[in-house]
């Protein structure tokens, strides 16, 4: 079966694989050119968008400067400042207020970070309130001041730098114009923009590599994370005729590159993206190509599945029956219907399985019957051993009474003994109820009371109303009661033997408990008894009753009989009481609880 399926699937898989691989290669190669074209358009658009938005910011800043300088009131105040100087504090403060009102009006837009006016003689006013009208940096010490003068009133762009006027030293870019009247320098007007806004613009190209340089060839912004990539971008931006692609100096892969230049600010921007034929294939896998491939694979799988099902259905059913066949389901599996096939060899195999199943079922029935008969015989043998064991103990009681001179009590004892012997030696029923066992124990204790008199005290607390419905083997409780009477008397030398017998629960879960006031179990005695019980169970199950003697048989015999009778549903627990003395508890439950 496995060989047939493997061969059919191997042939099918080989043909399908060749077909699908050819289709994939053809489609990927055909579409790789289109993929490159689309990506080229994307990076060109991204580069153009970055340059355009940067130009828009710079244009807006320059417009604010031009609009401010064209304000005649502003120019008149700047002339007065040049003429009067700043020696008179009251006049300087008035001029500062007039200038500040002008620039605050002109810079009402939220785009700018700061609009500042300053002169070489120390006058300064700003649209922000974090500065006073005194220089924190002298204009003459600014490296770019001469470059701004060289523009002669034209726009001068200053790349990323620390704001020299405020207390936060925030990174900004600036557009600066010299204030002239018409050729005399009245001061300078500076519009600042936070560099964070430039970074927001550059986030348009976050999925690509991006580098921007200013007119001096210095890097204005880059998101390249290695020095090799920054250097490669800087060199690329210096080329007059840049190519459409290049090899990435770090990964060695081919990447598309696009450069855009701003005529307004002199910025040059390069955007790069790695591409490969695998990228185009992966992209295609989520488009029409993958749909066609899945449809072809689905159709072919349907055809081959119908073909294999027709041939393999009977064998698969037989395989399922074999996997689910166990000793418990052997008879059911033999009756399970299996589809017939047009192949004679398969039908012959099904027939052979049914014959084998029938032979195994018959053999299993014989084995179960033999095992049950063997267990019943061993249980009866154990039960038979308990009768002479009990008689032996009771005769010892009579002998002891004769020795102690209680001759008059012997006839009464013999009558009660006769009643107990009829109960214990009756062969009609080897199984009795908890109620009958308790009556037998009570009769036994009356016999012992006749012997020990005031030296024996016992009490019953019977809280199980279902004792007449609980089934257990005969003489399974008396050995524990005998031990509770004899061991405290002969071993501990107690003046008074005290016993407490309890029952509780219901017919589903019940317990029997006997507790004495003796010395209890010696160290390691309980573990020793449990070990002997396990050995006896193994011995009985594996061999026969040979080797088990009556002497010392009571507790071990009883535990073994309870286990064989209940299959482990009745358990014996032995321990020492907290108040000294031994405690034996027998617990039982339904087999399905």
Short précis:
With 593 residues, the protein is an alpha+beta fold.
Number of strands: 17
Coarse shape? elongated
Number of helices: 15
The proportion of strand residues reads 15-25%
- Helix fraction? 40-55%
Unreliable runs? 545-552
Radius of gyration: 54 Å
- Roughly how many Å apart are the termini? 44 Å
Largest sheet: 5 strands, antiparallel
**Structural class of the secondary structure composition?**
alpha+beta
Major sheet strand order: 2-1-5-4-3
Rounded mean pLDDT is 77
What this model shows, in words?
- The chain has 593 residues and is of the alpha+beta class.
- It is built from 15 helices and 17 strands.
- It has helices at 2-69, 72-84, 89-106, 145-150, 195-202, 227-237, 277-284, 288-323, 330-334, 344-403, 409-425, 434-452, 478-492, 525-542, 554-566; strands spanning 114-118, 124-126, 156-162, 171-180, 185-194, 209-213, 219-222, 245-247, 254-261, 268-274, 431-433, 456-462, 471-473, 497-505, 509-515, 570-576, 582-589.
- The protein has a 5-stranded antiparallel sheet. It has a 5-stranded antiparallel sheet with strand order 7-6-10-9-8.
- The protein is elongated.
- Mean pLDDT is 77; it is low at 545-552.
């Amino acid at each position: 079966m496995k060989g047939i399926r493997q061969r059919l699937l191997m042939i099918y898989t080989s043909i399908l694989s060749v077909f699908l691989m050819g289709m994939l290669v053809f489609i990927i190669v055909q579409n790789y050119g289109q993929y490159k074209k689309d990506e080229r358009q994307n990076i060109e658009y991204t580069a153009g968008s970055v340059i355009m938005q940067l130009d828009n910011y710079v244009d807006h800043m320059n417009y604010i400067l031009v609009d401010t300088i064209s304000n005649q009131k502003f120019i008149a105040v700047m002339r007065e400042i040049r003429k009067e100087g700043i020696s008179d504090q009251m006049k300087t403060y008035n001029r500062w207020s007039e200038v500040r009102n002008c620039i605050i009006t002109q810079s009402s837009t939220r785009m700018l970070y700061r609009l500042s006016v300053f002169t070489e003689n120390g006058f300064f006013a700003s649209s922000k309130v974090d500065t006073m009208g005194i220089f924190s940096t002298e204009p003459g010490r600014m490296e770019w001041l001469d470059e701004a003068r060289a523009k002669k009133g034209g726009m001068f762009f200053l790349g990323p730098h620390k704001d020299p006027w405020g207390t936060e030293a925030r990174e900004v870019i600036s557009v600066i114009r010299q204030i002239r009247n018409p050729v005399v320098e009245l001061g300078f007007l500076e519009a600042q923009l936070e560099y964070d806004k430039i970074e927001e613009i550059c986030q348009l190209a976050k999925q690509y590599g991006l580098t921007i340089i200013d007119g001096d060839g210095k890097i204005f912004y880059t998101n390249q994370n290695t020095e090799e990539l920054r250097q490669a971008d800087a060199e690329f931006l210096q080329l007059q005729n840049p190519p459409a692609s290049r090899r990435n100096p770090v990964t060695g892969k081919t990447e598309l590159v696009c450069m855009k230049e701003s005529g307004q600010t002199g910025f040059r921007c390069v955007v790069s993206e790695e591409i490969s034929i695998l990228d185009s294939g992966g992209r295609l896998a989520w488009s029409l190509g993958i749909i066609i491939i899945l449809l072809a694979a689905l159709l072919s799988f349907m055809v081959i599945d119908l073909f294999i099902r027709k041939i393999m259905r009977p064998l698969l059913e037989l395989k399922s029956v074999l996997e689910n066949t166990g000793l418990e389901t052997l008879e059911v599996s033999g009756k399970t219907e299996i589809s017939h096939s047009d192949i004679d060899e398969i039908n012959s195999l099904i027939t052979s399985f049914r014959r084998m199943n029938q032979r195994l079922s018959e053999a299993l029935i014989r084995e179960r019957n033999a095992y049950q008969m063997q267990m019943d015989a061993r249980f009866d043998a154990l039960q038979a051993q308990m009768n002479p064991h009990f008689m032996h103990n009771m005769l010892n009681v009579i002998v002891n009474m004769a020795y102690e001179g209680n001759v008059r009590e012997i006839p009464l004892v013999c009558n009660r003994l006769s009643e107990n012997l009829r109960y214990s030696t009756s062969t009609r029923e080897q199984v009795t109820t908890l109620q009958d066992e308790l009556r037998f124990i009570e009769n036994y204790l009356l016999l012992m009371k006749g012997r020990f008199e005031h030296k024996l005290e016992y009490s019953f607390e019977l809280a199980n109303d279902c004792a007449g419905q609980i089934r257990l083997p005969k003489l399974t409780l008396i050995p524990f009661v005998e031990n509770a009477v004899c061991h405290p008397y002969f071993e501990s030398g107690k003046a008074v033997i005290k016993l407490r017998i309890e029952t509780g629960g219901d017919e589903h879960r019940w317990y029997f408990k006997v507790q004495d006031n003796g010395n209890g179990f010696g160290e390691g005695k309980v573990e020793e008894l449990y070990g002997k019980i396990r050995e006896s169970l193994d011995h009985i199950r594996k061999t026969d009753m040979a080797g088990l003697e009556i002497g010392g048989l009571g507790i071990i015999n009883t535990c073994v009989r309870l286990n064989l009778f209940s299959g482990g549903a009745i358990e014996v627990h032995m321990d020492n009481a907290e108040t000294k003395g031994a405690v034996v508890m027998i617990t039982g439950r339904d087999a399905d609880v």
